[in-house]
């Protein structure tokens, strides 16, 4: 997230909407540029992931990447 203070409320609104599907959420700030940050999300429902990504990427300054772990 670029300029996380400006976008935090919109990002939080999306997280709240998908809250029942989010198992883990970890937020980290950039030590060099504290206005930027990284948020790691673990979700239970993969079918909801694409919707979450679309909504987050609609917010200016938010970029999403995915990792899929299968056992």
In summary, what is this structure?
By secondary structure, the protein is of the alpha+beta class.
Structure description:
The protein is α+β, with helices and mostly antiparallel strands and 71 residues long. The chain is 37% helix and 21% strand. It has helices at 4-17, 46-57, and strands spanning 22-29, 37-43. The chain has a two-stranded antiparallel ribbon with strand order 1-2. A hairpin with a 7-residue loop joins strand 1 (22-29) and strand 2 (37-43). It starts with a helix and ends in a 14-residue tail after the last helix. The mean pLDDT is 90.
| Mean residue pLDDT | 90
Structural class: alpha+beta
The largest pleated sheet is described as:
2 strands, antiparallel
Helical amount among residues, as a percent range?
Answer: 25-40%
Distance between the termini: 30 Å
- Secondary-structure element series: HEEH
Percent of residues in β-strands: 15-25%
- What is the total tally of β strands? 2
Number of helices: 2
Name its key features:
single chain, 71 residues, two-stranded antiparallel sheet, globular
Helix/strand layout:
Blueprint: H1 4-17, E1 22-29, E2 37-43, H2 46-57
Antiparallel strand pairs: 1-2
